[in-house]
Specification:
Layout (H helix, E strand, L loop, with lengths): L2 H20 L5 E6 L2 H16 L4 E6 L4 H6 L1 H6 L2 E5 L6 H4 L6 E5 L14 E5 L14 H12 L7 H10 L13 H12 L3 E6 L9 H7 L12 H10 L5 E2 L2 E2 L7 H17 L4 H4 L3 E6 L12 H13 L3 H8 L5 H26 L3 E3 L4 E4 L7 H13 L9 E6 L5 E7 L11 H11 L3 E4 L3 E7 L3 H11 L5
Length: 478
């Protein structure tokens, strides 16, 4: 049987279960992850629950582990219907204890463990179960969207939210930053219905909503050494390539540039990035596919999908989950205003931490990887993963090695570990999830995730031992 047929069956099974649940009149408990994919997938599932008139309670969590389940114990006991988005596949053993519940898992992480024989009703919608790559072709928001779309054709309006989640999980890994696989299917549906447009353009942050100087200074993917995080240097750069950054005291927008000025900007950025040490391939990443949402105002941070994703991600990292969900569900007034404020605060904090990485103050080089010691300067647990991602995708560190970033976990006595693999190493057979799981378990912790992006928690006092084990296991973890 084809993967498509198996996927269709899985989606049908999920929809049928939700419809059946709606007949009971009982509430569901929806638990999701705090990142952009977790928040967007939760938002899509909230729309599904509303469509079916299923009462619900939502909880956004850092991770699904024993302490989290204990904290939610009373809520879990009160609900017969449990939905997990962007979580659950890697915690099958933990969730098997709820054998008397009806459980729907919508995830894209590697399924781990088995289910107890007496589990009443377990439905798992995960691309990996259908031979679809969960790292590059589909994430939790992708799968949530496909369920919503299966329920009602009108839910094609949720295509932008699914795309925001996919970009948040850095699944724009096709040629020139294009979405591929099931994500591509959603893009095509969105374009056809008028909710999405796709074009080749400069990949500068906020290109349509912010002054050009800010766009350059705020761009982190790709990271532009010397310009990212520095508005004054970005201003000088524009003047150096023959573009006036301001007119009559007002900073210029990208939309005000002439065709000749756009040409100067593109060639100038690429030349600058090569001159400061990036490869031509890395420099050319400044040009790529962008995803726009025509039904949003062009000047809004929600018009460009990557800026939208950054906004949602910032709210998740700074514990403003409700604000992000409200924006995803359509609030363009107070919630959007607050989300913009949160995003600005988050980017300022992020810039400060990136400068510490660039300075080398908190970086230690091992034979097989770089370690960023975020615990030394108090980088927040929910931000350390973003620091690792930027360091791995940019030229902050001189050699192409896996990036392991550490900081103190909210769980007392533990270290939070975030690991990211540079794109150049994607096909080198390195499996970060397996390596972190192996090393973490050896020191009394736990780890997992994806081959290219993984995480762990380990006891503080065994940090050095963990790093030594990781160095041994990174390239040959069993």
């Amino acid at each position: 049987m084809s993967a498509k047929r198996l996927l269709d069956q899985g989606l049908d099974e999920a929809v049928e279960a939700l419809v059946e649940w709606s007949k009971s009149g009982k509430p569901a408990l929806l638990i999701s992850h705090y990142d952009a994919d977790g928040i967007t997938s939760a938002s899509i599932m909230i729309k599904v629950l509303n469509d079916l008139a299923i009462p619900f309670h939502v909880k956004i969590v850092n991770q699904l582990d024993e302490p989290t389940l204990r904290r939610l114990e009373k809520l879990l006991e009160r609900h017969e219907f449990l939905i997990f988005t962007d979580l659950g596949s890697g915690q099958r053993n933990l969730l098997s204890r709820y054998a008397d519940k009806n459980i729907l898992v919508v995830d894209h992480h590697q399924p781990i463990g088995g289910l107890a024989d007496n589990v009443k009703a377990w439905i798992e919608v995960n691309p990996r179960l259908y031979d679809i790559n969960g790292n590059t072709e589909a994430c939790a928001s992708t799968m949530s969207y496909l369920i919503a779309r299966r329920l009602s054709s009108s839910n094609i309006s949720l295509a932008p939210i699914a795309i925001v989640g996919a970009l948040g999980d850095m699944q724009d890994c096709g040629e020139k930053g294009q979405l591929v696989g099931l994500n591509r299917r959603i893009v095509e549906e969105g374009v056809k219905s008028g909710y999405v447009s796709e074009e080749m353009s400069l990949r500068l942050f906020g290109l349509r909503s912010k002054p050009l100087v800010e766009c350059i200074a705020r761009t982190t993917n790709p990271y532009i050494p010397g310009l990212t995080g520095n508005e004054r240097a970005s201003y000088k750069f524009l003047k150096s390539i023959g573009i006036e950054p301001e007119v009559n005291g007002q900073l210029r927008m990208f939309s005000s540039l002439s065709k000749e000025e756009v040409r100067k900007l593109v060639t100038g950025l690429i030349k600058y990035m090569i001159d400061v040490g990036l490869s031509s391939k890395e420099a050319e990443r400044i040009i790529g596919y962008v995803y726009l949402f025509p039904r949003e105002k062009p000047e809004s941070p929600l018009f460009d999908a990557r800026e939208y994703s950054s906004l949602v991600n910032a709210c998740g990292r700074l514990d403003k989950y409700g604000v992000a969900i409200a924006v995803c569900l359509g609030d363009r007034e107070e919630s959007l205003k607050e989300a913009i404020q949160v995003a600005n605060m988050y980017r300022e904090r992020l810039g400060r931490y990136i400068r510490l990485v660039v300075s080398g103050e908190i970086v230690e080089e091992y034979e097989g990887f770089y370690c960023i010691h975020g615990d030394i300067v108090g980088i927040e647990e929910k931000i350390i993963g973003t620091i690792a991602s930027i360091a791995a995708s940019a030229t902050l560190l001189p050699k192409g090695k896996p990036v392991i970033a550490l900081t103190r976990a909210e769980k007392e006595g533990f270290i939070k570990v975030s690991a990211r693999l540079p794109r150049a190493l994607n096909r080198k057979g390195i499996d970060l999830a397996r390596a972190l799981r192996f090393a973490a378990e050896k020191v009394g912790g736990a780890g997992g995730g994806h081959e290219v992006a993984a995480g762990a928690q380990i006891p503080i006092e065994r940090k050095r031992e963990f790093l030594e084990l990781l160095g041994e296991s990174l390239y040959n973890a069993k």
